[in-house]
Amino acid sequence: MDLGFLDKSSDVTPLLVRLYDSSKIYGLAKDKKPLARAELTSAVSELLELDVSPRESELIADVLIELMRQAETDLRQAVSERLSVMDNVPLRLALQVANDDIEVATPVLKHSKVLKDLDLIYIIKSQSPAHWQAIASRKILSDQVMNILADTGDFGTATTLAENMDIKLTEHTVTALSCLAQQSEQVARPLLRREEISSDIATKLYQFVGQELKQYILKNYKVESGVLIDAIDDVVLEFSDADSISEFAPTQIMLNAADRFKEKGLLTIKLMLGTLRRGQIQSFVAQFSRFADLDPQTVEEILVQPNGQGLAVACRAFDIMKADFVSIYLLTNRVRAQGKMVDLKDMTKAVNYFNRIKPDVARNIMQGSITKEFNPSQVEID
Question: Which of 76, 83, 84, 371 could share a disulfide with 107, CB 3.0–4.6 Å?
Fold first, then answer.
C-alpha cells in the first residue's frame, strides 16, 4: 500500500494501516474470528466518517473495494450492513456492494441513500430478481424506478411492491401488478389491501382469486352483480367438466384471463414463457390458444407431438424466435413425455422442422385452420 503522498499528521494514514493489518490478520485466520470482523468493520466506519480530501477519499474507496473483493461472505455482509446506513459512502464502493451476491447486497439495496435512480435502474437491468425484490422494498422509490420494477413481470418483485406500504403506487404500477395478480394470489392479497386499488380493479380481480379473497373483495369493495354471476358460472362449468377434461386443459377462468391479457396487448411470448417457467402448463395452453386463435384442445394436441411439427408451424406463423420455440418445446416436455427426460432425437427433429418451414407457408397453414380444423399430425414439411 503506497501511502507516501499522505501527510504524516493525516488521520487517514493510521486507519489505513490499521485496516490493512486487520485484513491481513483476518485473511490468514483459518477460522472465522468475530474480533477480526469487528476490527475491520469498525475501521471501515471510522474511515468513511472522516472529513478527507477528494484524493484521500478515492484512496479509501480503492482500499475498501479491494478488501470487499477478497473478503469472505460473512465479512462482506457485516460491512454491507454498516455501509447501508451511512450517507458519505463513495458511490464506487456502494455499487460494488450492491452488485455483489444478494446476501451481501441486500442491506445496501434496501437502505442506502447513496444509490440514485440511475444506479438502481442499472442494477435492475443487470442483476437478478432477488436484487429487484430488495430494491422494491426501499422506503423511497421514484415513479420511474417503481414502474421499471413492475414491468419486470416478476411475481416476487410484484408482491414486494404490493406489500411496501411506505410508497404510493403509480397508475402504471397498479395496472401492471393487477395483471400479475390475475395469475397469483400471492400478489393479489397485499394488492387488494392498498388504498390505490379502485373498485373497478377489485372487480376484475374477483374472477381470478379464491374464496377467501372473494369474501374480502365483497366486504371492502363494490362489485357489480354481473361479475358475481359470471364467477358462479365459471365454478359450475369447472365442476361439470372435471371428469371429461385432461390434466392440461385450461379452465374457463384461465381462458378468461388470457382474453383479458390479449385485450390489453399483454399476451406476449415473454408472458407465456414466464407462465411455463412457473410450471403453469394449463394457463399456458389457455394463453397460447388465444395467442394463436386455436382451440385449447388443438393446442394440447400440438404439444403432445414428439417431433414438434404443429408447434413449429404455429411459432413460425407468428414470427416466434427459434430460441423461444426451443424454450416452449423443452418447458412443455411434461405434456409429451409424462415424466420422462427430453429425447434429444425428438428435439433435434423439432428444431429441424422449425428451420425448414417458411413463415409464409406456416401462416397459410394457420389461416386454413380458421375455416377447417387444424390437424397437427398431418403437417408435413419437405
Answer: 84
